[in-house]
Design a protein that fits this description.
204 residues, alpha+beta, 4 helices
């Protein structure tokens, strides 16, 4: 019986979630499996991979063949490297302690790269949020300036509409003042000839 290490699809539509399983090559993709050795969630960034390293390496020792995607996952988690180092130990090329030290160093370097990627993604998200906030503030400031300008224009238009009425009121006041002045001056002019006539009669 040939065994394959492959992915078995789970999750809902549009958000798949995979199990990493060792299964008979003749079984269906989502059918029976021999052992579940891990999970793979591509919905997160970076993708979340949980793998039982010892079980995966044991299946590789037994001749299981991973699919392309499963091989990438096993390589990412160090299962292929451990399988290779165990082969060197069996051949006597290196001791178990040396193999374990090499694997530990590789895992530390890999963890550092993953952490750096996570930090980069977090910083990128923070920068994107700050940029979006700044753009939103600029839009709000522009909107407020436009509203203030519209209000100022409305006030100016209303003042311009009320200006003719004020001018008409001033003209009416001036006409009334002129008429009043004319009325006040009129009696004095009429009395002057009368006074002159009285003087002439007195002299005669």
């Amino acid at each position: 019986m040939s065994v394959k290490i492959r992915l078995q699809r789970h999750g809902k539509k549009g958000k798949p979630f995979y199990w990493v399983v060792a299964a008979d090559a003749r079984s269906k993709r989502d059918g029976k499996y021999l052992e579940k050795i891990g999970t793979y969630n591509p919905n997160t960034n970076p993708a979340t991979i949980d793998l039982n390293l010892d079980s995966a390496v044991q299946w590789l020792h037994n001749g299981a063949q991973p699919t392309d995607t499963a091989r990438a996952i096993l390589s990412y988690k160090g299962a292929l490297l451990k399988h290779h180092l165990d082969g060197g130990v069996r051949k006597g090329a290196l001791t178990q302690e040396q193999a374990d030290a090499k694997l530990a160093d590789w895992l530390d370097q890999k963890a550092g790269k993953v952490d750096a990627k996570k930090e980069g993604l977090t910083k990128a998200q923070s920068d994107a949020k700050a940029k979006a906030l700044k753009a939103e503030q600029a839009v709000n400031a522009k909107r407020l300036a436009t509203a203030a300008q519209a209000e100022a224009d409305a006030i100016a238009a209303e003042a311009a509409a009320n200006a003719p009425e004020v001018e008409e009121t001033e003209e009416v006041a001036e006409v009334a003042a002129e008429e009043t002045q004319a009325v006040e001056e009129a009696p004095a002019t009429e009395e002057a000839p009368a006074a002159e006539e009285n003087n002439e009669e007195t002299q005669a």
